[in-house]
Amino acid sequence: MQTLVIHGNEACVRGAIAAGCRFFAGYPITPASEITELMSRMLPQVRGVFLQMEDEIASICAALGAAWGGAKACTATSGPGFTLKQEGIGWAAETDTPIVIIDVMRGGPSTGQPTASSQQDVMQARHGSHGDYEVIALTPASVQEAFDLTVKAFNLAEIYRNPVIVLSDEIVGHTLEKVRVPDRVMARPRKKPESPPKDYVPFRPTPQGFLDGMPAFNQGYGILVDGQLHDEWGIRAGHIPEVSAKLVERICRKITDHSQDLLDVEEYMLDDAEVAVVTYGSPARSSLRAIKEARKAGVKAGCLKIRILWPFPETALDQLCQRAKKIIVPEMNTGKIYREVERVAAGRTEVISLPKLGGEVHTPSEIFAAIQ
């Protein structure tokens, strides 16, 4: 076990490499540039491959190709680059390609605030590409979580054969904190198909809705990977309604049917809480301090911190709505996840949005004032 003082972007790099990432393609963009820079230094030390591409579209396409070449692959970016990667994310979902995308969020739209923080990409992470599909998105609130959740992102990508997004932000990315880095992490290995090549059907699901491992080219498997909707053999079927519908339903249900397995929240002082703060990412830091101050002032306040934002933790929110009288949702955007909380609450409890724009995170006193 090593104890290091590093920033969140470096924690993401170390987490990716510890999880088995051996290919990175990226293009520098603030505030994620340190990830690209550090990958260029650290990947060659573990016999990995680093590519700086000409733009963000080329970056994600190179990483997708590397995934089918047998490597655990990753790319990183921020707002404008994340927008450019959306077609690649949709392709990854449609082709069951395991890939990790790190988005260090900054203010927008357009080029926005290159050196300031935000949480304005949370809906783009969920709905950014066209068509029906599902993603998994993790939201670290500390440098330690940047490491831990990046490792988890790679493991989930392998299990679900799906694009997984690490939704960091500028504050997490550039904060220096103490991080415990284990000598070895629980990294899920790349699992080859159990079926022999002669019997292998590349996109035929198991009874659990998953695919049979992850093959790579030049391993003897017959693999056809096409961006158009296809049948279980990978042959284009966009003109066949039943086959097309079956594929879209499968790639969605492999996530939605296992949403409980993807539940990752932390509860603080919620047993008797009358006012609850629902939070994720950097505002979670201020929220935890605020509920402690509220308790000192005699207010029964608690906090639900979300670590996996998509799929949305509806069961945890449903249980909270049965107990708390009021819920406050602080966000560095116009109130995007507030609407999701309000949807789950369905009028059972009052949900209060606490948005903050301009690139600054909420102070504990601002959240405390809302609690009071």
Which characteristics define this entry?
372 residues, eight-stranded mixed β-sheet, single chain, 22% strand, Rossmann fold, alpha/beta, 2 domains
Short description:
The chain has 372 residues and is an alpha/beta fold.
Topology, please?
Blueprint: E1 2-7, H1 8-18, E2 21-26, H2 33-42, E3 49-52, H3 56-68, E4 72-77, H4 79-84, H5 86-94, E5 99-107, E6 113-117, H6 122-127, E7 136-138, H7 143-160, E8 163-169, H8 170-174, E9 176-181, H9 241-256, E10 265-268, E11 275-280, H10 283-296, E12 301-306, E13 308-310, H11 314-321, E14 326-331, H12 336-345, E15 350-355, H13 364-371
Helix pairs in contact: 1-2, 1-7, 3-5, 10-13
Q: How would you describe this protein?
A:
This protein has 13 helices and 15 strands. The chain is of the alpha/beta class and 372 residues long. The chain folds into two domains: 2-181, Rossmann fold, CATH 3.40.50.970; 266-371, Rossmann fold, CATH 3.40.50.920. Strands 2, 3, 4, 5, 6, 7, 8 and 13 form an eight-stranded mixed sheet that branches. Strands 10-12-11-14-15 form a five-stranded mixed sheet, with helices on both faces. A two-stranded antiparallel ribbon has the order 1-9. Helix 12 (336-345) links the parallel strand 14 and strand 15 (350-355). Helix 1 crosses helix 2 and helix 1 (8-18) packs parallel to helix 7 (143-160). The longest helix is centred in the middle third of the chain and has 18 residues, at 143-160. The mean pLDDT is 97.
